[in-house]
From TrEMBL:
<dbReference type="InterPro" id="IPR011426">
    <property type="entry name" value="CamS"/>
</dbReference>
<protein>
    <submittedName>
        <fullName>CamS sex pheromone cAM373 family protein</fullName>
    </submittedName>
</protein>
<dbReference type="Pfam" id="PF07537">
    <property type="entry name" value="CamS"/>
</dbReference>
Length: 343
């Protein structure tokens, strides 16, 4: 069964954007949602799709997290990375702190002042490795997990964001952009993680700490970066006891990289786009971003844009793109379809 996080197409996440001075002048931007009446829904939705996803409950009132606030300041221009980092940390946390018996709260152990000092280029508190060609540590994000009583801290999850590039001067004085290898970033990250564990142990002793290394993409990239490794710090321990490598990458649909990794999937996507364009009387733009783990597609986000002449066209197109997706892509992936229609 295909697992869908966001429904559009069936109606999956359908937004009507009304152009200024367009054909629907009296309508504001609106979101089309599924009807409450099951009988009416059956007429409009094809096929039926079950959503399977578990989320953490939180505590009330919500508490601001210093490292989360620092995230927006430090990672400006990395919108996709910010989203993926936070979502990925929560996914990783579920392996260690199940949502059915833990509550989520934004990190409270690391203050903003500490975060800024730890992220600085140099200085006594800097966590940036001295042997790196430039500051490789870009951000530290903290999440906390509590017992169901909302009081007892049960675990800490830390995301360590690492730069993917650095600048090197040539003999003529010009600069060139060079890329860190994954192994280089892991080695820097292992060093940073052990120092982090020691500093956090001064704040909390008897809870496990999970540290995830995340490789940022280049600024303003059309795809997010990826997680490199996850480390586990046992209660009362001051260093990571074991590391697990994550083989994760995001690829654009279509792209030469996708065709190189999986030519059959690339061909299936091209066929999917052709069928949509043959079905609809006007041009339909279809692009996507796929997440691969161990070279297998596990998540696909599709963005569909077109112009419409009537609401009936929108409904027919969303039904078609949803049903065609079910028959085109692997059954066990998370599929998100986002659509923007303008008159």
């Amino acid at each position: 069964m295909l697992r869908l996080r966001a429904l559009i197409g069936i109606v999956l996440l359908m937004m009507l954007l009304v152009a200024l001075g367009g054909c629907l002048p009296n309508q504001e931007q609106e979101e089309i949602t599924e009807p409450d009446d099951p009988a009416e829904q059956a007429q409009r939705v094809t096929p039926t799709v079950q959503i399977e996803e578990t989320h953490y409950a939180g505590v009330s009132p919500m508490q601001e997290s210093p490292t989360a606030n620092l995230l927006n300041d430090r990672l400006q221009g990395f919108r996709l990375d910010r989203d993926r980092l936070e979502q990925g940390l929560i996914e990783i946390a579920k392996e260690f702190f199940p949502p059915d018996n833990h509550l989520f709260v934004g990190g409270q152990l690391i203050s903003r002042t500490e975060g800024e000092a730890w992220l600085s280029k140099d200085g006594p508190e800097s966590l940036n490795p001295a042997d790196a060609p430039s500051p490789v540590l870009q951000h530290i994000l903290e999440h906390n997990y509590l017992a169901l009583n909302g009081q007892d801290l049960q675990g800490v999850v830390i995301g360590v964001s690492l730069a993917s590039t650095y600048e090197s001067k040539l003999e003529d004085g010009t600069e060139q952009t060079l890329y860190y290898t994954a192994d280089q970033l892991r080695n820097y990250g292992f060093e940073i993680a052990d120092k982090l564990a020691q500093r956090l142990r001064a704040k909390v002793q008897d809870v496990p700490i999970v540290i995830a290394l995340y490789q940022l993409e280049e600024r303003q990239s059309y795809r997010p970066g990826n997680f490199l490794s996850v480390g586990y710090v046992k209660p009362n321990a001051q260093e990571v006891s074991e590391w697990r490598t994550i083989d994760e990458v995001y690829l654009l649909f279509p792209s030469p990289e996708l065709n190189h990794l999986n030519s059959e999937l690339s061909s299936d996507f091209s066929g999917y786009v052709r069928r949509i364009q043959d079905f609809f009387p006007r041009y339909v733009g279809v692009v996507g971003t796929g997440r691969f783990v161990n070279e297998e597609l596990v998540e696909l986000n599709l963005d569909i844009t077109t112009e419409f002449a009537s609401i009936a066209e929108v409904i027919q197109l969303t039904q078609y793109v949803g049903s065609e997706a079910l028959g085109t892509f692997p059954e066990d992936i998370y599929l998100n379809i986002y659509s923007t229609f303008a008159p």
